[in-house]
Amino acid sequence: MKLLTLNFLTCARKACKSTTLAFPLRPKDAELEIVEADLEPLFIRNILPRVEWEALRTLCQDLGLPQLPPAAPEPAALFAPNPSDPSIPSDKLVRPGKEGEGEGEGEGEGEEGAPTQTLKDLHHVLLETTIREGKLVCGNCGHAYAVKEGIANFLLPSHLV
Amino acid sequence: MPQYLVRLAQTHESFRKAELEALAELAGIDIRFDFYDEDSPFCILALPSPTAAAILIHRSILSLSIHELWAQGTDYATLHASNHAASSIFWPHYATSSFRFTLDSYRGSRSTATQRTIIDSFSYMPLNGRIKMSNPDLSLTIFEDFATGSHEPRALYLGRLLSLSGRIAKTTYDLKKRAYISTTSMDAELALVTANVALAAPGKLFYDPFSGTGGFMVAGAHFGASVWGSDIDGRSIRGKGGKAKKDVVSNMVQYGLTSRYLDGFIADLTNSPIRGARGPGEDAARGGWLDGIMCDPPYGVREGLKVLGLKRDPGENRERLACVDRYMEEGYIPPKRPYSFEAMLEDILQFAAVMLVVGGRLSMWMPTANEEAENGEEQKELSIPMHPALGLVSVCVQPFNKWSRRLLTYRRLSPDEISPEALSAMVSHKKRAHGNGQNADDLNDFRRKYFQGFKEPET
Ligand SMILES: [Zn+2]
C-alpha cells in the first residue's frame, strides 16, 4: 500500500470519520518495501494539492523516513523552466489507434519542462514507498486494520459497524 | 464550422453519441451534431478544424475513423454534383500527392468490378500523384449506406481520412486474452467506453469502489489515469494462485500499466475508510479530490443470470455455481445490515457527491427490468437516481432479453449550481426513509421484478 493511498484513508467507523484524531491512520509494526514505478509527472502535479501534507509528514516520521519540509512544494518547483519549446507541428500531436502504453506520455514535459528532483522525490515517497505488512491504527478508537502483502483490510467486525 | 464524417461502429448505438460528446468535452472542442441516426454508422459533425477532428476521434472506441467531408448525396449523380460544388477547392492542394480511393459499403456488397467502376467515376478529379495503397498522402473513402434489404444505397459520402479511432484497444484488452477475470467482468469494449464517458485521462485520479477483477481500472489506466480500487470481497483484491499469481496487478503487468495502478484495498462503501476532501469529515458542498468514479455495483443480478443462463462446459459452470454459493454462506463476508438496491444507489451518489472534484464524473452501471422501461419516459426518468450535487450527463442503454443495463453518467456540479434547499431536503428525506424500518427486500424493486420475470416453467 502506497503512502499516497494512506494519505486518503481514515478510520472506517462512522463515529471516527469526523474527528481529526482518526487521521492519518498510524502504521504499527510496518514492513516497508520500495516498488519502483515510472514517473507520472502530470499526476504528481495534479495530486499534490489534494495531499494532506501534515499527515504525510507524520507518516514519514512514524516510518523513520527522511523528514519532509514543513510545507508542500509549490507547483513551480516541480518542473524546470522550459524557455525554448520548439513548436510541435499540430498533426504530430495525434497518434491514431494509440494503444495503452504511453497514452498521453510526456504531456507533463511538453508543457511544463523537465521534472525536477523535488518532483522525483515526491514520486519516491508517495508512489514508490509502500507498506508491505503491518497494521494501521486509528488514533481515536484504537482499532487496528491489518495490511497483508500490501493489501489493507478495512472491513469492520460486526460490533463496530 | 466545417463538417466531418465519423464512421461509427454499428454497435452499442446508444453509447456512441455520449462517447463523442465526452471526448469533445475532454479535449475542449466545440462540437455540433449535424446528422446522427442510431440506425446509421455515419454521423456528420461540425468541428473547428481537421486537427480538432483527429484529436476528438483518436481515442474513441465506438468510432472507426473520422474524415473531412468532401461530398454527400442520395445517389451517385448528386454525390458527384456535391463533390464539384463543395470540394473542388481542396483538389489543387493534392494535385501531386500520393493517394488512394477505397469503398466502404455498409449493409451492401459490391463486386470487385463494380467497385472499380465506382472508383473510376471519380477520375475527373485532378489528382496526378501516384496511387499508393499504404500510407498515401491523401486517402479518400466513398461511403455507401444501404437500408436493410435494399439494392441501392440511401446515402453516399466522400471523405478524406484524418484519423483512425482508438478502437484497436477493444482487441488489445479482450477478456479472452486477459489472465485474471471473473463471471462479472465487464467486457473490454464497454469498460473502455465507460472510461471515455467518465473522462479518464493522464494526470487524473480514478476510483472503482466495486473493483472486482479491475476491468475499469485497466480501462482508466489505458487512457492515462492513475487508478485505485476497492472491493468488499477480499478474494478479488488478493487474487488467486500461488507462484503464478493472477490478480489485478498481474493484469496491469500484462498491459504495461503498473505505474498507473495505485492500490487495491478491501473495503465496504457503506463504511468507507476514504476521507473527505480536506482531512476527516464529509461536506457535500465542497469539491472532493477524485477526478472520476467508474463502477458496476454488485446488484446480485448478474451472478444469478450467469448461473442460470450460461451454458458452457459443465466443469466451468460447476465452479461458477460453487463461487456463488460461497457468496451466500453466512459469515463469509462480515455480516451486513439489510441493504437494498435503492439504498446502495443512494450511498454511491452521496459518496460521489462528496469525493468528486467539481466537474468530475461518476459513470455507474445499473440494471433495469425492461417492463419498467416500457411504461414510458416519465417512469424511466423517475427510476434514475439523482442527487442535488450531481447533474445527469448521459444515459446509455444496453438491452438484453428480459432486462437492460444502463450506464448512467453524472457530473459533480459546482457549488453555485447546487440548490441548498434540495441538499437539505435530501438529508431530511434520507433520515425519514432510514428511520421507518422498511424491509430491504421491499425496497429492492428491481431485484424482485427481475427474479419474478425470470421464473419460467421448467421443461
Ligand atoms: Zn476509529
TrEMBL record, chain A:
Q: Where do the record's region annotations for Disordered lie?
A: 71-117
Alphabetical GO biological process terms: rRNA (guanine-N7)-methylation; tRNA methylation
Name this protein carries in UniProt: Trm112p-domain-containing protein
What family does the Swiss-Prot or TrEMBL record give for this protein? Answer: Belongs to the TRM112 family.
What GO molecular function terms would the record report? protein heterodimerization activity
The protein's superkingdom reads Eukaryota
Q: Name the species this protein comes from.
A: Mytilinidion resinicola
What Pfam families does the annotation carry? Trm112p (PF03966)
Which residue ranges have biased composition labelled Basic and acidic residues?
A: 92-101
From TrEMBL, chain B:
Lineage top rank: taxon: Eukaryota
GO BP terms in the entry: methylation; tRNA processing
Q: Which PROSITE patterns does the annotation name?
A: SAM_MT_TRM11 (PS51627)
GO cellular component terms attached to this protein's record: cytoplasm; tRNA methyltransferase complex
The tRNA (guanine(10)-N(2))-methyltransferase TRMT11 N-terminal domain extends over 3-167
What PANTHER family has UniProt attached to this entry? RNA METHYLASE-RELATED, TRNA (GUANINE(10)-N2)-METHYLTRANSFERASE HOMOLOG
**Know the name of this protein?**
RNA methylase family protein
Can you name the source organism?
Mytilinidion resinicola
